[in-house]
Amino acid sequence: MTQSGRPLVVNGWSLFAHPLFIGQVEALIRKVETLKANDPGRYKRKNSTKRLAAIAKLALEVIPEDPTRPEYRQGGTLGDDRRHWFRAKFYQQYRLFFRFHVGQRIIVYAWVNDEDTKRAYESGVDAYRVFRKMLDAGRPPEDWDTLLMEARVSSKRMAKLKSSL
What we know:
Blueprint: E1 8-10, E2 13-17, H1 19-38, H2 47-65, E3 86-90, E4 94-101, E5 106-112, H3 127-136, H4 144-153, H5 155-164
Parallel strand pairs: 2-5
Antiparallel strand pairs: 1-2, 3-4, 4-5
Helix pairs in contact: 1-2, 1-5
């Protein structure tokens, strides 16, 4: 949400972020700030900085253009009963997982993997395997209303995130 209490709206889509997503992005922001403080001339060339820029562009520009794009659909990697989850791929091994509701024009960003959970087929820490285990544990929740409620609670953190990106 913005400072006025309204959600951030891009291309007619209200954007929300689950606390799991916000936590990942906040950690990445802190890392980039440290890189900038330690090496102001070269921090922009670092993987963390580029990844943060890619996440911001995806979440705030690209996905809200059309979250229904076929390239966001995932196959059966999370299980056939979880095709309502979508993901945007970036930098080969990174995934940003989200859900949307066309009728409500809402997008909820749920989780983005990090350096420790890169996409690696059959790895124990593969992004899809980790996210599937998170879903199995109920974090983030499968139920749309619960997912949206948890994301709404984090709306002030989302506004702060946007201003940091």
